[in-house]
Amino acid sequence: MSVPNRARRRMASGVAVLGFMGGLLLGAPLTVSASAQGCVQEKEPSSCVRVSGTGLTVDSVAGGVLLSPQQRVLGHYHIYGMGVDFTSGDALYVNESTYFPDTRFGPTYAVNRDLPDGSQVCSSFIENTSDRYSPAYKVHAPMCETIHR
Questions:
Q1: Among 37, 44, 45, 59, whose Cα sits 20 to 30 Å from the Cα of 141?
Q2: Which value, to the nearest 10 degrees, does the dihedral of the CA atoms of residues 92, 96, 102, 106 take?
Q3: Domain assignments of the chain as residue spans, ordered by start
Q4: Per-block average pLDDT, block size 10, for the chain (149 residues)?
Q5: Does pTM surpass 0.85?
């Protein structure tokens, strides 16, 4: 006996739903990714942050800077949030593209712990605008990601 394709697809869908529901009833864990990345939408350079993890567990964080085509900038990142506080050293970040903006990330810092639901992890890019005679820094608006279940 041959089963038409439409009926075969319905049966396969039903089996998949039953398997999913059975996993819920048996207490099988569902993995929800906490990884996120974003940049402040302002004139470049602008602050970016990348948060990696699963659920409320944050594995690592990194600060980034969004650069215009052919832009070069000297600076560092301040990454902060609930129990997170890292500051990188100054480095030169360069976008070699002639046409497209690009995000350059600095060092990745290990967090390896659960953060409270709803807490935020933020990164500010701090541009070194010093000249030979006077030190100066420009703090760019922070980019934050919110940690959720």
A1: 59
A2: -30
A3: 1-30, 36-146
A4: 46 40 38 71 92 92 96 96 93 96 95 93 96 92 92
A5: no
